[in-house]
Amino acid sequence: MRSGLSLTELGFGAAQLGNLARVTTDDEAAGAVAAAYDRGIRYFDTAPHYGLGLSERRLGAALAAYPRDDYVLSTKAGRLIVPNEEYDGRARDDQGFDVPADLRRRFDLSRDGIRRSIDESLERLGLDRIDIAYLHDPDDYGPEAHAEAIPALIELRDEGVVRAVGAGMNQSAMPTEFVLRHDVDLIMLAGRYTLLEQGALEDLLPAASERGVAIVAAGVYNSGLLSRPRPPADARYDYAQAPAEVIARANEIADVCESFGVTLPEAALAFPLRHPSVVSVVVGMRTADQVEQAVERVGAEVPDELWSTLAERGLLRDA
């Protein structure tokens, strides 16, 4: 990467440390980070959004045991975590995290809002610096993102507060604009360049290649659809119930994978890393066992013939 940072091919996604979908205990969170470090993972990603700051606090506490120069940490900006004046003492967060709703998120893409977000992340993390700062999900705030938020992140990079900047999103169109219009270092792309769909080949990946911008692939299981050898009938896709035709396509891909002795999740992790602009694949990990599973999957041997066969059958667009 042009920033001088080096990311491990497998990155630790810390959304689960914020109690994504269900409670993760403090011991599970600490054990997952320790297992990841023991297995050579040196890239860790979090965000204020994850558990209203809980993920950042847990990740920072766990990483405090290790030399700061030995790992790369990314977090995100764009949502401030503020007191919820309407909290009744019982309500839980309504955005997918099993935490009390005593706090709430407030989008703020102003220069001051971005700087405040980074300062507050540093405080929650308990660390002296952030390596990568992504603008998080600015889908509905395009003008503000271009006019203030991305320039504010670049300003923080120029001041040495962060080392690299970019955006983390579930679409490829707006990140492509960031790459073409701003001096960003990398993009975290969730779900749009995976074994199941390759829409980013139309816009983001060519732009990133041309500008020397690195891509971090996230959401490579497409909300869990590709996380098992066979997708269940109630599989989720893009954070909702997967349509029948999408499940059928995933099963067709699984058929080909099995014919080469490869599991669907192994192929899902291997595929994005084939593109020369993709420097890391980030996977959510809740426990030490999930870390071990991810490490084994990313280390699996996947023959080139698998990709060509999928392409011949119209199931894949390869880079």
Automatic annotation (TrEMBL):
Residues 9-310 form the NADP-dependent oxidoreductase domain. It holds the Pfam family Aldo_ket_red. This is Aldo/keto reductase. PANTHER family: GH17980P-RELATED.
